[in-house]
Design a protein that fits this description.
mainly beta, 126 residues, globular
Amino acid sequence: QVQLVESGGGLVNSGGSLRLSCAASGRTFSSYAMGWFRQAPAKERVFVAAINWSGSSTYYADSVKGRFTISRDNAKNTVYLQMNSLKPEDTAVYYCAADRDDPRGLQRSRDKYDYWGQGTQVTVSS
């Protein structure tokens, strides 16, 4: 079992930056691929970014490519999402998720992830 706790959300002006963190419990974090998703009010939870177990491969939704960067520090059991050039349409609750079945990961489907955090709110004002 893995527990995930997100932090780093908040209110930021359009064009600003935030860095989200997701801290994982357990000794098997380094064997999991990880992903970030987001859910805006009255909308489905959608894929944002994913990273494989080692951090050598990443994958992004088109809507965030070039603005967001996913990374991980396995020594700290933490995955990050650096968000730059934020837009009002990035406003959502952001969730991190762990894929225990395939360390190579890079899955964009919610169904491929086994563990989820509670989410952190990101609000971008125009």
